[in-house]
Structures are given as structure tokens and as C-alpha cells.
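Hello,

Our lab assistant flagged a job as stuck in the queue for most of the afternoon. It eventually completed. Since we weren't sure the result was trustworthy after the delay, we are filing this so someone can double-check. Below is the sequence as submitted and the structure that was eventually returned. Let us know if re-running is recommended.
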Amino acid sequence: MSEILDIIKSFNCECSCGVKHTTSIKDIQIGSGLVNKVGEILKNNSFPNEILLVADKNTLKASEGIIESLGGFNVSFKIYDELRVATMNEVEEIELLIKDRDIGVLSVGTGSINDPCRLASARQDKMLCIFGTAPSMDGFASYSSPIVCDGFKSSYPAKSPEVIIADTKILVSAPNELKSAGFGDMVSKYIGLIDWQVSHLLTSEIYCEKVAKLTKDAVDELMEMADKVTENDEYTAGKIFESLLKTGIGMSFMQNSRPASGCEHIISHVIECLELEKGKLPNLHGDDVGVCTLEMLKYYGELARHSEIEAVKENVNWNEVYDFYGFMADDIKKVNHPENIVDAVEPQKIKDSWDNIVKIIKSMPSYEKCKLAMEKAGCKITTDDIKKDRAFFNKCVKYSPYMRKRLTLLRLKDMIILK
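-- returned structure --
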């Protein structure tokens, strides 16, 4: 896709943020009927003659013709029945299949298929192509992989694929619930951008205006197409996929997920881990994230209505936190001790910066505007929609800030006293 490749090239220079923005992405192809040209595209990008195709039965069925397109390649397969949650087991399985071989990886699907392929390919230094089957999440171009290991979900530094392919005929045929979930995942970027800027303001964490603009422009563009998300239109499906790619490329440029996720993603990860421990299959990622986004937009909007605040040192009852996390308590201790992410945040600085924090919040669309767009896109809106008990959800919100060593505005909740 020449427009996106042009964007990548435009970042290939020294940036005022101090980060050298690079990505391993060499080719992006989005178009009608491309499932029949996958082999040709791989050859044009110098992939090895051996290919490991990773998919589940659903994504492989959706990609009819992809195997036939790989004529001339020596193809082996790792096909799961249905892969909804990526764990370290899948990463290690794929690693074993590609270790000590001159082989490339072709990941056919979306997040739960792509993430273990991304991490395994990085660890074994193999070329990776992602063939996206639904516009359901933003991680196609991402540098990191969210993986569940021993019940705890963490984001691992991985790699962006060298090649990304999407057939708009397949994208448009994806179930509407996947398209709506992708829209919910995109709207979450507004919270991520607020949290990133607040952290930059209070801790001097590296922040890039150029990357942030790339992300916000992509979400703004998609918001204008909210009423077309579930339509049977190849052009719209392709544009949605492009928007998802742009936010993933932003993550790749920063080598972390800051441009595309904030406290709303952390809340959803807490929910997922706790539900997995109880043997419950999580919802679609974008469904939970979308609802968490609306909840945080409402809360941040309430904060922005206060022109003055007081601020105090954080005072955490860590035993209470560990009791909530249960089997994950040791992981939470490692995240928060001996170095706590808010140790360097002085209450007076929060108070002195409050006007700027309010401006940051108000620079993003409101809860009401995002809710209306998500309704048009067929997204889940409420905790009832995602079948979450309200008391359970509120606890996940309360304790989520301690799951990651990442400053968010939500993490400052107990330090801010509203007037």
C-alpha cells in the first residue's frame, strides 16, 4: 500500500523526540483477491523457500486459496483448532518448528495467531509475513506481543513483520462482531494518547508528537466511517485495515505500545487473566477494550471539569492489592518493587501541571462523541454488553494500575484530591 509505505519512509530520519524510528516492514499489500497472490508477494520479498504456515481452522477456512498460491514453496503447517488466547506454549511450539532452519513464517489470522508468531520469529530471527483475515485489532504491524505466561499477561518485545497482506474480499466477509471489535480497539487510542502525554509531562518519558499525530489521525479518520464499519463494502474494509495498520506502525516506531494503549488495555488484561484462571474464555479483545475506553473517557472527562485539585503522595495498601491478584501476586510485586512507577512523581508537580493535564484530556473526543460512534459501528457499549458483573469490573479498574510499570492518569487516582 503505497500511502502507508510512504508514511514509513517519511519517518526514516532523525526525529526531535530523540528516538530513531525504524521498522522491519518492507511491503504492505491491501487489495481485492490478494489471497491468490501470497506466494508471488513472498517471492518478491525474498522469503526463504521453506514456509511455516500458522493458522487456526477458522482463519485458514476464511483464506481459501492461500495454500494453492504457495506453489513452489516447501510448506509445513501448524494449524490450531481455535486459538483465542496466545500463551507462551504457542510461542515455544512455533519456535521448535522453525529453529535451526532456513524458513519463513506465514501467520494467517489476527492477534491470537499473529502474536506468538511475532515473538517466535523474533527469537529465532526468521522472516515473518502476516496475512490479516479480519479488521479486528491493531497489532498487525506492532513490535510487541501480548502473551499469557503462567496466567500473567505481559507484552514482550518481538518484531514487526517484513510483509503484511490483506485481501479486502476476506476482510469484508469477516463477521460483523470482529469488525466492531476492531473499531472499539481503535477508539481506545484516545485514552492511550492521554496517558502517554500525562506521563511525558510528569516523568519526562519520551513522547513523539509525530507518532502521536499518526495515531490520532488514523483514529479520527476511522471515526468518520463509524456508520460504514459493518457494511459489506470492500473499500471501507480496506480503509479500516489501513487505520489499524497505522497505529501498529506507530507502536513499531516507538518500540513499545505507548502510541496505542493506555489504562484501558491494562484493565482488559486484568479481566482476561482473572477469567482465564477460572477457565472462562475471554471476550474479543476489542469488545472489552472498547467498554473500558468508554469508562475511562467518562472518568477522565469528570476530572477535566475540575479546574483545581490538591495532590498527595500515593499510599497503597499492598496487601490488599496482592490479595486481589491472588495467583498473580508475585508478578505484581516484581512490577512494583523495589522501583514504583510513581516514586518520581511529586504531588506538587501534579498540582502545578493540572491545567495542562486538563488541556490534554480535552484535546481528545469526549465520552459522548465516542459512545455515539461506537453505537453506529455496532460496538459493545456497557459492562452488561460484555457480560461483566459491575462489582467485579470496578475492582479490576481499581487494581489495574499496579499490573504494569507504566504511568497512566488512572494510576494517579489516589494521588488526586478533587475540589
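-- support follow-up --
The delay was a queue issue, not a problem with the job. The result is valid. Residues 217 and 243 are 9 Å apart (CA to CA). The first strand starts at residue 27 and ends at 31.
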